[in-house]
């Protein structure tokens, strides 16, 4: 049982909160740096419905803080495309791709799913695209592996959500470079023009 004494030990620990604050600032700075290295003209060429790059944050995603970098923001359930980087404290860093159900035809979608830039992504069958805990549990069970031989007919009814775990690097610059590479290598795959 959690006691007042347990709570007070945390409440009074100013150094702990300063450390958490610095860690949050570092995560936001990382996402800002990645965002600043994204070519906005390339985004506009890739997806006309794009609403621009956006960073957001919160403190209560399954009781843990998080930061999000939306690189492409178009949540239209039919023709939309969203590329999202989620840094979720206690869980890790993940790259999500959310496609409207008609973004690609079936043949193009199958080709996309087995392309080299999508290695390590898993197709989510969770019906709600923002139920991150369930999506990640499902992906963990699949070992974050591409679903070779996956029957795509079950996905034809709705949006397609892809997720990939991004391992942390030894320092911020290495992590920043990796994130930029992971994101930008997706751009040619989603160009529909």
Protein architecture, described:
The structure is a single chain. With 193 residues, the chain is of the alpha+beta class. The chain has one domain. Helix content is 38%, strand content 23%. Strands 1-2-3-4-6-5 form a six-stranded antiparallel β-sheet, with helices on both faces.
Q: SSE order, as H and E?
A: HHHEEEEHEHEHH
The beta-strand count equals 6
Radius of gyration: 18 Å
Characterize the biggest β-sheet: 6 strands, antiparallel
Q: Helix share of residues?
A: 25-40%
The structural class is alpha+beta
From the spread of the alpha carbons, the general shape counts as: globular
Helical region count? 7
* Overall average residue pLDDT: 88
Number of domains: 1
Helices and strands in order:
Elements: H1 4-11, H2 14-36, H3 40-46, E1 54-61, E2 64-74, E3 81-88, E4 92-99, H4 106-113, E5 122-124, H5 132-141, E6 160-166, H6 172-184, H7 187-190
Antiparallel strand pairs: 1-2, 2-3, 3-4, 4-6, 5-6
Helix pairs in contact: 2-6
